[in-house]
Amino acid sequence: MRRTTAPDTERLNRLRQAMSLARLDALVCARPADVLLLTGYWPVIGTAVAVVDRHGSVAVAAPEDEGDEASRGWADVLRFFPAGSLHELPPAPEAVREPLETCLRALGLRRGRVGWEGGASTVPVPYVALHCYGSALGDLLRQLLPEAELVPAESALRDLRATLTARELRCIATACGIAAEAYRAGVAAASPGTTETELAAAIRSGLSTQTVSLGGSRADGFVFCMSGPNAAEAYGSHAASTGRRLHRGDLVLLHCNSYVDGFWTDITRTYVLGAPAERQHRLYSAVFAARDAALEAIGPGARAAELDRTARSVLASRGLGEAFRHSTGHGVGFAAIDHLAKPRLHPASPDRLEPGMVFNVEPAVYLPGIGGIRHCDVVTLGPGGVEVLTPFHARIEDLVLDG
Fold first, then answer.
1. Rounded to whole angstroms, what are the CA distances from 297 to 95, 291, 312, 324, 388?
2. What is the overall mean pLDDT for the chain?
3. N or C: which end of the chain has fewer CB within 10 A?
């Protein structure tokens, strides 16, 4: 089985440059997001291992039942191992050993400095379970490359994931487009008496059913609804839909993390069921003013901490500073939620914006007992400035549900 996708030459050039700067002769990665970064192939269960050398040659050792997915990448060398057996139960490091050794030999790797995933990270899960090699990958590489020097490459990998290529940006745009259509169709289910779980399910269904029309071979995601006073708790590290029924006048916060072929979104829209009350209108106006100010401050070299300060100061000027309980945003793309992903729009962030970065901008207010409003867009910094990849339902008028 051979590859069916043309190489992302922009990504391969960046990999070569990064390895040159770090004085690496190769990179070996097993986390699905990093295999995607190196090869264009997003593994399903996490047992695949990818290798790229300093010349940009790519090899992949993958389970046989992921052959179609692996061939959609751009590996020059593909080697497979049995996904399962009725005769033995080998652990993953043992199953991948021989094909990985073949890959290393095909790329002529015996010695030198070899970078690998030697640090902690947030890993988006591509399936219901995910295998993680952890230190076992290092142990295996020491056995297969006894003359090589293994070098933790987490910092270099994080920098590589921070700026996306034109091809990768198209994948993100497709994921955002699918999510936009899912929101537009799904919110029609909102009416007094609808439960949070029912509304979340109505939107989530669109994340996979529209894949054929908008492109992408693997698409789905997660959607959560928090309404009324529950929306005031939506600032936490995770969301949770409940059986609460919607009431007229409720704020209805809908949070979505969706993916297409390994590229993720982080989107939130907050609707109101019926005409917004005067106080709700003021809250919406404040959040949108903070959003607009942050977007205007985006540019090459801009300090991420300054973007956070800009959005935060707008809300503070309206008496809502304490109600904004999280950072203004973080990098998005190879993961939906990774608060180490650059750029981190956080008061303490040292990051600066660079062209090709994709991140969210999510000003918000949370008022206990009343509700919460968050407007989270996915944006990118391109040659022409900032581009909002999620321009749908971007006005107060768009967020009013007749129910």
1. 51, 10, 13, 19, 14
2. 94
3. N
